[in-house]
Amino acid sequence: MRLTRTIVPIALVVAAAAAAPAATPADAAAAVREYEGTVVSVDRADRTFRLRDTERGTIRIRVNRNTRYERIDRLGELRAGMTNIEATVRRSNGRWIALEVERSGGGGEHGDDDDRGGDDD
Predict the structure, then answer these.
(1) Which residues sit opposite 34 in a β-bridge?
(2) pLDDT given for residue 35 in this prediction
(3) If 0-12 CB within 10 Å is exposed, 13-18 middle and 19+ buried, where does residue 78 land?
(4) How far is the CA of 49 from the CAs of 7, 18, 27, 103, in angstroms?
(5) 15: part of which helix (H) or strand (E)?
(6) Integer Cα distance of 31 and 88 in angstroms
(7) Which DSSP helix (H) or strand (E) runs through 2?
(8) What is the pTM of this model?
(9) What are φ and ψ of residue 13, in 5° steps?
(10) Which residues pair with 62 in a beta bridge?
(11) Which of 65, 86, 90, 92 is the most buried (most CB within 10 A)?
């Protein structure tokens, strides 16, 4: 009788653990990270570049056909020494894969209009 009382609760715990999802959305979101910094090197043959983030150190990032680019035209435009490069990456098979690579900054005046109260005459 005692054996039944022990086995049933253990069986319920094992069944509940097996029914639980392997990864929750929070776990998936935790796998995505953002880095910003200076390009240290580019390996076009391996489709990777190294990015030095002042807060997190230097990481190696791989690009693929699904990588999106903003204000930069593909891996071929990246050069060692380029600053203000942002990369959104996810971990896959032990490697950081770029979801998006962009050149940040700019922040100045956009367009030709100067409407800051000056006289246009």
Answers:
(1) 88
(2) 96
(3) buried
(4) 54, 40, 26, 14
(5) helix 2-19
(6) 11
(7) helix 2-19
(8) 0.64
(9) -65, -45
(10) 48, 97
(11) 86
Residue 49, class by beta-carbon neighbours within 10 Å (0-12 exposed, 13-18 middle, 19+ buried)?
buried
Domains of the chain and any CATH numbers: 33-103 (2.40.50.320)
Do 58 and 23 meet the contact criterion of CB atoms below 8 Å apart?
no
d(CA 28, CA 108): 36
pLDDT, tens digit, for every residue of 85-109? 999 999 999 999 999 999 987 655 5
Residue 58, CA distances (Å) to 35, 38, 42 in order: 9, 9, 13
Q: Are 73 and 37 in contact (CB under 8 A)?
A: no
